[in-house]
Amino acid sequence: MRRKLKAYFQSRKAREDLLDLLLIITGTLLTALSLNFFLIPNNFLAGGVTGLALVFFYLLKIPVYLTIIILNIPIFWWGFKEINRHFLLYSLTGTLALAFFQPATQALARPPQIDLILAAVFGGSLSGAGLGLVLRGHGSTGGTDIIAVILRKRKNMGIGEVGFLANLLVIAVSLVFFPLNIGLYTIISMFVASKVTDAVISGLNTSKSAIIVSNHSMQIGSRIINEMHRGVTYFSGKGAFTQEEKTIVNCVVNRFELAKLKKIVAESDPNAFVYISDASEVMGRGFTIKK
Q1: What is the pLDDT of residue 27?
Q2: What is the pLDDT of residue 287?
Q3: By the 8 A CB rule, do 94 and 139 touch?
């Protein structure tokens, strides 16, 4: 057992696990700060279980962290037999960390005196960044994330669908028990949070995928390899109108290299047809290396 533990702590896997846990802890801290600095002082809500915990806090004065723990108990019990143990353990870590940081940072919170729109935007940005870090650490903060994984397995429902329905429930509750403006500001905060979460997960350096149809494909491909040091894939194609056989170039570059790619194509073949699209996630040499 000692040897196994020593080998593990010296392995790359241990470093990766440590990084994941650091991301989860940092993400939950940011989420807690968002709650205490922006959302709670302005009576805003949030998505999922955290949003329901805020409802109970505003109406019944039940501590937010306590409701988060209580609501997650049956969810984790359900997920214990249904989902991957690694994800379940990391999600439990995220849930407990959020339940710890929320009251721990509450006493330190000095809510800024800002406009409600700014509070919704900055609150959503901070919570979105927090959730993005937690998800990059291959964990979650429990609640609807666990339910979504289970329903995807059992009912083939998308994770986005479950999240949307959970947020819809929170918004519906807010419209019943709170003024209309609270529900509207909550929608703004949720929208900003979702965009920031996507940006944190995918990274700000979005890659671009280029499809190039040209009579000088080999020259273009060779220049991309030699001048940009990017890989190129050739496809065989046939023009529907001309019935001509063509070699199609496909390559992926980051957004800073896009101008160079366009210059190479323009110099090699001004009549080339180029189609460029966003590549939200790229893994492999020169890009993100998958674990």
Answers
A1: 94
A2: 58
A3: yes
